[in-house]
What does this fold into?
Amino acid sequence: MMEKVTRRIAEKLGDTLAANPEQIEIYAYGLELLILPVINLIIVSVLAYIIGILPNVFAFLLVFAPFRLWGGGVHLTTSIRCLVVSTVIIVGLSSLSMINISAVLLYILLFSSFLLGLYVTEKWVPACSQEKPITDYEKAIRQKKYMIILIICWFIASLLMTKMHLYNYVLALILGAISSLLLMTPGGFCLIGAIDKKLDDINKGGVKNV
It folds into this structure.
């Protein structure tokens, strides 16, 4: 659905600008990159408001989004799948951050996820698929540096917020970090790949039954 909409818009834009087919593909891809996060944010915000976890969702996204931006990671093959799965992850883990948690356990989670972040960054960032590898060495090093800076800023902010007894928000920050980091690992790629394959099988089965 999303691909069709962005494709139509790109084609109209291409007609106006007398663009060639390759440029139209670029327009369509760019539009999808712009539109999908906006739709995702709207859906997530509405659900979070209804459930009553809006501040936790924003805390989660405050870490999840920039980590994904600079760290990379796996994506599903279609925009609608990305939309659904990311919504489930964001709303689900933000809801989990509402649980009561002790300061001791929070510190353990925070320090563990900090070490995890450094390890994942050193080992896999920038995380990319075999189909679209990053071949620019300088760019890869730059992304690692940015990611380390982000991790340090997140860690310090989380420590300060823990001192202020904002435990649920800190937990949301931690879950945002852990979930984004796991999507940069080979295990994350395998998991999302398995979900993609299962959805492909379901889709093929549905087509056969029509």
